[in-house]
């Protein structure tokens, strides 16, 4: 235990303060700046995870979750500072400029060796995004039908591996930097279909593509390794226990489920892939 | 004297290498950096796939080079034309080199790689391999054209005059007198362009092809480890270092011939 943490706890005990302050103990002295929680997200951050690229507004699922976690850790909203980071910055070795980072990072075993993940705050279904002409040409929600399509994906996500494992397309994949480029390639008819987490796929099909369709989804419980999103922290982060406790609280009291219902569109209309 | 300087060079090199080998691991973050960038296990796991992906880089390089050579030579000749009736051609050459030397390669790759297929070309004519190659060829032709032009201009005017006095036409003068010397003279400079092109082929990964840089990026994301990038760098070096040495050799030989 750091001296400052010890002194804070000792002072809290001596004063016999209330539970609200006691919550703060687990994070005290462990954040990069005392009394402030620095949270990173992508640049830009995408709908519906962060609305209008403005996480401090608390609008959007991840913006809301981040603030809920911060509150549960004992930080007020005005003690939260937002910063930006790329995926690479999140996993490179060395000191970080944030306390935790959230931008739909899927928890995987290999990644967990280099960085720390919190408990998952969301389990994502994977959805197949395509365009109306492809659906008209006979693409349906069966793996056999999907095999014959030309696939593309965002390279830094778990999508390329999931496409290979779940679908195993006949033709080789084309890979892009981010979802915007994947959509561009789909518009240019260079690829037929791509795999995204369901909320992103719903957004892309409704807003970015004129003729977008969701051919089907792989529900989280269907794949062997469900795509679960976790908060990323530096390997060996002193905050991990505190963050995990906050997420457990938010899961148990239904806050996460409520935020999911508020920000992530209903998924019931998308057929399951056979 | 020669031997003494060799000894001094050997000792100082050894000292520098020793200092790096002993001091770098003393840095507080070395263990983490070693695990992320020099991970033997990850290297062994990913290297074969990286080499496989590099075959795409080589293929794209190989079919780009002849196209670049032809277009660059045509542009260089267009810029060199002295016939007033052909001024539009000269103007085109000037505009072409100005535009394509002035735009970053990656932007040309993006704009042409996504833009032209977006016009609605049918498969396979909208392939990112085709339009990515077009983007590389357009950009590199502009640079190489300027190199060819410098070569052409380095041939003294007296040679053209001599050729004319022998009764050679302007085009024959260019073909048999100027170009053979000019092209040979700029070979070392063009070798440098080839080396740069071999690296820039990796930019095509932005529009879809899974070549070595993209494959390394996929491994990086899956394994949260940067070692695949080190592997990719080694693969590039295995091609570019011999090419660089060869360019140096050509330059040295040229210097000997001229002196």
TrEMBL record, chain A:
Signal listed as a keyword: yes
Range of residues in the leader sequence: 1-22
Keyword Hydrolase: no
Domain of life (superkingdom): Bacteria
InterPro entries xref list: Solute-binding_3/MltF_N
Location of the Solute-binding protein family 3/N-terminal domain: 36-267
Keyword vocabulary terms for this entry: Signal
Record's protein name: Amino acid ABC transporter substrate-binding protein
């Amino acid at each position: 235990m750091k001296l400052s943490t010890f002194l804070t706890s000792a002072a809290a005990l001596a004063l016999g303060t209330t539970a609200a302050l006691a919550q703060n103990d687990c994070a005290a002295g462990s954040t990069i700046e005392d009394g402030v929680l620095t949270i990173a997200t992508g640049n830009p951050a995408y709908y519906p995870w962060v609305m209008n690229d403005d996480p401090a507004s608390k609008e959007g699922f991840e913006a809301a979750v981040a603030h809920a976690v911060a509150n549960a850790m004992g930080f007020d909203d005005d003690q939260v500072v937002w910063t930006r980071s790329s995926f690479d910055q999140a996993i490179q070795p060395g000191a970080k400029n944030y306390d935790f980072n959230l931008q739909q990072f899927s928890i995987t075993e290999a990644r967990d060796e280099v960085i720390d993940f919190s408990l998952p705050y969301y389990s994502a279904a994977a959805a197949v995004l395509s365009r109306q002409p492809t659906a008209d040409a006979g693409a349906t929600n069966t793996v056999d039908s999907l095999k014959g399509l030309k696939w593309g994906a965002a390279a830094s996500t778990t999508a390329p591996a999931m496409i290979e494992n779940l679908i195993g397309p006949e033709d080789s994949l084309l890979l892009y930097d981010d979802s915007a480029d994947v959509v561009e390639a789909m518009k240019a008819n260079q690829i037929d279909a791509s795999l995204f987490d369901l909320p992103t796929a719903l957004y892309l099909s409704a807003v970015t593509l004129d003729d977008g369709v969701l051919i089907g989804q792989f529900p989280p419980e269907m794949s062997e390794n469900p795509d679960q999103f976790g908060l990323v922290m530096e390997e060996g982060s002193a905050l991990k226990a505190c963050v995990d406790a906050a997420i457990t609280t938010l899961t148990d009291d239904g806050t996460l489920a409520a935020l999911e219902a508020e920000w992530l569109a209903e998924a019931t209309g998308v057929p399951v892939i056979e | 004297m020669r031997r003494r300087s060799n000894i001094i060079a050997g000792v100082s090199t050894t000292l520098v290498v020793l200092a790096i080998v002993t001091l770098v691991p003393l840095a507080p973050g070395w263990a983490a950096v070693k695990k992320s960038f020099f991970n033997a296990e990850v290297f062994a796991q990913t290297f074969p796939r990286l080499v496989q992906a590099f075959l795409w880089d080589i293929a794209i390089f190989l079919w780009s080079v002849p196209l670049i050579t032809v277009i660059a030579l045509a542009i260089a000749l267009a810029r060199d034309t002295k016939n007033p009736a052909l001024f539009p051609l000269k103007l085109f050459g000037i505009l072409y080199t100005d535009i394509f030397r002035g735009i970053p390669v990656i932007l040309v790759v993006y704009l042409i790689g996504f833009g032209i297929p977006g016009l609605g070309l049918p498969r396979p004519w909208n392939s990112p391999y085709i339009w990515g190659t077009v983007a590389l060829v357009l950009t590199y032709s502009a640079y190489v054209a300027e190199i060819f032009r410098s070569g052409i201009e380095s041939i003294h005017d007296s040679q053209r005059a001599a050729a004319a006095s022998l009764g050679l036409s302007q085009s024959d003068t260019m073909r048999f007198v100027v170009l053979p010397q000019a092209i040979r003279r700029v070979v070392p400079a063009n070798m440098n362009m080839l080396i740069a092109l071999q690296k820039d082929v990796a930019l095509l990964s932005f529009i879809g092809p899974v070549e070595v840089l993209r494959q390394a990026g996929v491994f990086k994301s899956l394994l949260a480890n940067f070692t695949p990038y080190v592997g990719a760098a080694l693969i590039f070096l295995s091609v570019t270092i011999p090419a660089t040495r060869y360019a140096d050799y050509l330059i040295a030989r040229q210097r000997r011939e001229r002196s």
